[in-house]
Design goal:
The complex is a heterodimer. Chain A is mostly beta strands. Chain A is 0% helix and 52% strand. In chain A, strands 2, 5, 6, 10, 11 and 12 form a 6-stranded mixed β-sheet that branches. A 4-stranded antiparallel β-sheet of chain A has the order 3-9-8-7, with no helix packed on it. A two-stranded antiparallel sheet of chain A has the order 1-4. Helix content of chain B is 0%, strand content 48%. Chain B has no helices and 11 strands. In chain B, strand 5 and strand 6 form a beta hairpin. Chain B is globular. The N and C termini of chain B lie far apart (33 Å). The chains are: A mainly beta, B mainly beta. Chains A and B meet through strand 6, strand 10 and strand 11 of A and strand 4, strand 5, strand 9 and strand 10 of B.
Chain lengths: 112, 117
């Protein structure tokens, strides 16, 4: 079946540090890939997406590139802020408009 | 605010009681999804609707769980004879019909946190 594996957290960084959160996947078909973010006390929000190989999704300084050869979709940001502290979920969807399969989430804690 | 809304936000119940949650999707969205999220885990799919039709149910959805979307607008999720293992965050999401927005972007509500004592 479909699955998503994320690095375990928490990831603890100082403000302005570089961020990488690893995500790899297995899928029965050709998936679309997503990163969702959950801020404390709030619902999941779509952060970025990529729908085909070599696509780069980007939003709010975050980027992730769809790597089919390594089945990966790692999240990166060049300079994190305290306000980026949240839980980040990698997810996939196969065969458009179907359900999402999520990873377990990675908590990011950014200190001033 | 025209996002997905859920009610109640929190529910505490005793084991064996029945509970019902409501989800109001974004008005023009045809698809509505229910997920369950336990502590330290990502959301797990439970079921989804296209308009009023329930198109798929996860094996996680035991016979104590039932979901409806009678008029293709809001949805309810009922859990009968609750068990402590049902304690979780229940998330609702909606998405538009193909062609109206980004590919399978699901918009999530804030969730209903259920605690079964």
């Amino acid at each position: 079946g479909d699955s998503v594996t994320q690095m375990e957290g928490p990831v603890t960084l100082s403000e302005e540090a570089f961020l990488t959160i690893n995500c790899t996947y297995t899928a029965t078909g050709y998936p679309s890939l997503f990163w969702y973010v959950q801020y404390p006390g709030e619902g999941l929000q779509l952060l970025l997406k990529a729908t085909k190989a070599d696509d780069k999704g980007s939003n709010k300084g975050f980027e992730a590139t769809y790597r089919k050869e390594t089945t990966s979709f790692h999240l990166e940001k060049g300079s994190v802020q305290v306000s980026d502290s949240a839980v980040y979920f990698c997810a996939l969807s196969v065969a458009g408009y179907s359900t999402l399969t999520f990873g377990k989430g990675t908590m990011l804690l950014v200190s001033p | 605010d025209t996002g997905v809304s859920q009610d109640p936000r929190h529910k505490i119940t005793k084991r064996g009681q029945n509970v019902t949650f409501r989800c109001d999707p974004i008005s023009e969205h045809n698809r509505l999804y229910w997920y369950r999220q336990t502590l330290g885990q990502g959301p797990e799919f439970l079921t989804y609707f296209q308009n009023e039709a329930q198109l798929e149910k996860s094996r996680l959805l035991s016979d104590r769980f039932s979901a409806e979307r009678p008029k293709g607008s809001f949805s309810t999720l009922e859990i009968q004879r609750t068990e402590q293992g049902d304690s979780a965050m229940y998330l609702c999401a909606s998405s538009p019909t193909r062609g109206q927005s980004s590919y399978n972007e699901q918009f999530f509500g804030p969730g209903t946190r259920l605690t079964v004592l």
